[in-house]
Task: inverse folding
């Protein structure tokens, strides 16, 4: 017997949305030359001649082309003034910041290629350039927007220098690291970078993406974007597993981790599974002083988009309860095709106190936005 | 607590060493193996270190030899006390890992012959999965054809993570044969380690790998759905073995959500993916990654939207439970009956067929 | 319900559309091969401006690899999450029975008849020489 599950669409907004904090906003450049003012002559020339080189077959186009133009942009977000979606601050205000009276928008710049760059010195230069550009193009003219520090994980010295340079600069809120790296983030060789983030008071945001050279799934490269899109969750799970099992939080107890753009309904089951298997394999991980789920509960936050849409909308409430409403933060992912509208994304009405936490208070506290 | 007549859908039988397979291999391959000294090896897999606590329950460890390597032990630990009507034997073996397609097939044949002679012939309660060279679908299909007449083989066994995602058209010759003979595809936890468990890279600990087997299953299921395997092979069923179950509802929500926007990329996928999964995909219920409280357990089981999906399994000799707590407490009696008997019988049509 | 004159027929050629506001709600009026259809300009999923999305065909496949393009120009694709809706019925491709965009009945009336009423012309000036698209809202 299959139980009937319905997926009713609601006609009216499920939530009071005004004044929320948006934990995932994507700024884009108008042209790659926008970064040039922030690059030395040496790297400017490199950018113009060789450019970014990562570990995939196509230099500029996604290996998994999206289903809408501009590598998956929201169709009505193309600026009339030209340039790609996310490049026009006036339009971002009109469609997001002013429309919803956004209190703060956390930028996640998926530009510059710093994280995945094989020439790590160029990567380091691009990370600095993107950080400068975020401020000049977005955060300085629009203080509601907050920058995320870009680093090149594979160049420890420059990464730590950049984290330290931005510490105390209130325009920056977190350090951005893509989950698809060469090795999982809990591996020992990344520990100093994580410690630097914690020392600077920056949470790290693991925003989906990265081109590690590893196949998107453990069983190899899928054929379709239809598989690629959900496979991002698998990389995020790998990083949760890695950070917890390696005992990172025993060594860096102040480290806070935010999972961005992977949805979140997968987290409870992962925590249960970790606890169950840790019970048997404890001897292998003596660095853990308590159950994996306890580290997750203390050190991880999740952002909502792409919002899972349970077959029965009310099942969302269970998911939130299992994760903890104090660990979930709303995000739109503007201007991507799969972005969420704060009024309609949850298909169930949240209790008022949960809504306050998720839309606003959790992010205000985590990022000290007051 | 397990009702009589249960069907144990995942029991592991361990090949003690390649030497044990020699009598069951063709002369050519016997000599090949001996020239290379491979009979001295046991082909343990990286996915299942035999000494890891999770892979051998302490009271099921024999004094010598590998856990799962002896029929009397299996009888004493599972078949006699739990009294299942049937138990399905799954062999995880290095034969499934190696690159040479022909050697892989030769070893798999040896395993299947050994399984029939040393296990199935000696206890009428035993059934088995056909072990195939997973990276060579044409040869795998041949091996299935060779054994299809023996109704004690009730399933074809693959690993969740191999060279290419399981839905790829490359794999279809195998699925065609499996469908023809009423053999579900058993997708067992594990990896041939061609790729790290996700694009996040290689972790440090076995604990990380073991937990990530569920991600491997999610990826394999995505592939089977997106490539249209369930449309192309309307009678094929898939059983996801040994990776927990509670990850499925959130994954189904995500499949559905992606499909509504991206389905034009895979236009043959013409129904809600979750509905296809409910009809065609089954999961063995050990290791059961249950929430800590009974109320949450019932909530998450309710989110499956079907009580036909879970299959009883001990995962012998792996250590996921103590004593006889083979299923989490608090399951309603109706569901318990379905999981232990009705669902396995519906999933494996060959269990109901006469055997010689 | 009342009949509203929303456009002169010539304003919306085959394959074209016009977004109009009637009684405070935005409606997309489409011309598919000479037949007019009207949908609410609001996606039932998350409220996007549905009728401003791309007008597309049905892309289907009876089996993997057997690609078919049918009924060109009959579907509207939401500019946000790419959900597809049948312009004639408002039914979604994925869940035609459960997820629909609201549709309105549309007729074409000669200007001569309209001059007699009881139609609401909103912002469209009616002349007796032309035909008009009329939406029931």
Result:
């Amino acid at each position: 017997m299959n139980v009937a599950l319905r997926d009713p669409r609601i006609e009216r907004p499920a939530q009071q949305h005004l004044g929320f904090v948006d934990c995932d906003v994507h700024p884009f450049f108008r042209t790659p030359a926008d970064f040039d003012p922030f690059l030395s002559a040496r790297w400017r020339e490199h950018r113009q001649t060789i450019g970014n080189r990562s570990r995939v077959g196509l230099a500029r186009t996604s290996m998994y082309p999206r289903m809408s133009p501009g590598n998956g942009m929201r169709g009505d977000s193309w600026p009339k003034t030209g340039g790609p979606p996310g490049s026009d601050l006036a339009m971002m205000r009109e469609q997001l910041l002013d429309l919803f009276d956004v209190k703060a928008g956390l930028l996640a710049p998926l530009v510059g290629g710093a994280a995945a760059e094989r020439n790590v010195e160029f990567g380091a230069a691009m990370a600095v350039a993107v950080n400068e550009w975020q401020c000049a193009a977005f955060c300085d003219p629009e203080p509601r927007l907050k920058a995320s520090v870009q680093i090149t994980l594979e160049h420890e010295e420059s990464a730590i220098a950049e984290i330290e340079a931005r510490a105390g600069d209130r325009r920056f809120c977190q350090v951005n690291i893509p989950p698809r790296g060469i090795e999982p983030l809990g591996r020992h060789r990344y520990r100093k970078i994580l410690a630097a983030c914690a020392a600077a008071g920056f949470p790290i945001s693991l925003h989906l993406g990265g081109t590690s050279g590893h196949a998107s799934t453990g069983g190899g490269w899928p054929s379709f974007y239809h598989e690629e899109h959900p496979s991002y969750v698998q990389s995020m799970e790998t990083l949760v597993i890695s950070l917890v099992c390696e005992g990172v939080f025993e060594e860096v107890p102040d480290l806070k981790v935010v999972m961005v753009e992977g949805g979140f309904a997968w987290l409870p089951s992962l925590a249960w599974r970790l606890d169950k298997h840790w019970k048997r394999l404890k001897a292998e991980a003596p660095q853990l002083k308590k159950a994996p789920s306890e580290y997750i509960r203390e050190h991880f936050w999740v952002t909502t988009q792409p919002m899972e849409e349970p077959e029965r909308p009310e099942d969302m409430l269970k998911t939130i309860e299992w994760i903890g409403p104090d660990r979930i933060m709303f995000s739109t992912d503007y201007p991507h095709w799969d972005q969420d509208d704060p009024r309609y994304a949850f298909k169930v009405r949240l209790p008022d106190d949960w809504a306050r936490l998720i839309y606003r208070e959790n992010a205000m506290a985590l990022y000290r936005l007051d | 607590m397990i009702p009589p007549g249960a069907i144990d859908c995942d029991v592991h039988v361990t090949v003690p060493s390649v030497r044990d397979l020699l009598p069951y291999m063709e002369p050519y391959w016997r000599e090949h193996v001996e020239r290379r000294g491979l009979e001295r090896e046991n082909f343990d897999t990286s996915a299942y270190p035999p000494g890891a606590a999770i892979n051998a329950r302490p009271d099921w460890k024999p004094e010598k030899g590998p856990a799962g390597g002896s029929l009397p032990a299996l009888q004493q630990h599972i078949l006699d006390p739990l009294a299942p009507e049937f138990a399905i034997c799954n062999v995880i073996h290095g034969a499934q890992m190696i690159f040479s397609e022909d050697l892989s097939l030769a070893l798999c044949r040896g395993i299947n012959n050994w399984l029939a002679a040393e296990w199935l012939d000696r206890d009428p309660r035993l059934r088995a999965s056909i072990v195939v060279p997973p990276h060579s679908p044409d040869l795998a299909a041949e091996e299935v054809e060779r054994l299809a007449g023996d109704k004690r083989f009730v399933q074809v066994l693959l690993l969740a993570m191999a060279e290419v995602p399981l839905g790829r058209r490359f794999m279809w010759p195998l699925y065609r044969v499996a469908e023809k003979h009423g053999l579900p595809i058993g997708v067992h936890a594990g990896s041939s380690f061609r790729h790290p468990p996700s694009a996040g890279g290689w972790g440090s600990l076995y604990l990380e790998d073991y937990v990530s087997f569920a991600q491997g299953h999610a990826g394999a299921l995505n592939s089977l759905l997106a490539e249209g395997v369930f449309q192309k092979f309307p009678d094929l069923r898939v059983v996801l073995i040994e990776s927990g179950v509670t990850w499925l509802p959130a994954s189904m929500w995500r499949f559905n959500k992606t499909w509504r926007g991206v389905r034009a990329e895979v236009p043959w996928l013409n129904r809600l993916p979750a509905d296809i999964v409910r009809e065609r995909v089954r999961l063995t219920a050990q290791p059961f990654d249950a929430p800590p409280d009974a109320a949450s357990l019932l909530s998450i089981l309710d989110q499956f939207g079907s009580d036909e999906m879970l299959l009883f399994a001990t995962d012998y000799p792996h250590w996921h439970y103590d004593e006889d707590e083979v299923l989490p407490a608090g399951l309603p009696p109706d569901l318990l009956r379905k999981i232990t008997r009705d669902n396995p019988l519906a999933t494996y049509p060959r269990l109901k067929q006469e055997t010689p | 319900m009342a009949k509203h004159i929303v456009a002169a027929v010539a304003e919306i050629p085959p394959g074209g559309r016009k977004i109009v506001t009637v009684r405070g709600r935005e409606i997309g009026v489409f011309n598919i091969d000479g037949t007019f259809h009207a949908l609410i300009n609001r996606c039932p999923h998350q409220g996007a401006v549905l009728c401003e999305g791309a007008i597309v065909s049905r892309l289907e496949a009876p089996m993997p690899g057997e690609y078919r393009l049918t009924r060109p120009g009959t579907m509207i694709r939401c500019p946000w999450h790419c959900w597809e809706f049948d312009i004639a019925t408002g039914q979604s491709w994925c869940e035609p029975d459960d997820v629909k965009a609201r549709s309105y009945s549309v007729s074409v009336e000669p200007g001569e008849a309209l001059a007699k009423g009881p139609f609401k012309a909103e912002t469209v000036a009616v002349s007796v020489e032309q035909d008009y698209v009329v939406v029931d809202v």
About this structure: Residues 18 and 29 of chain C are 5 Å apart (CA to CA). Chain C touches chain A at residues 44-49, 52-54, 78-82, 95, 98-99 (CB under 8 Å). Chain C has a mean pLDDT of 93. Chain C has one domain: 12-60+67-136.
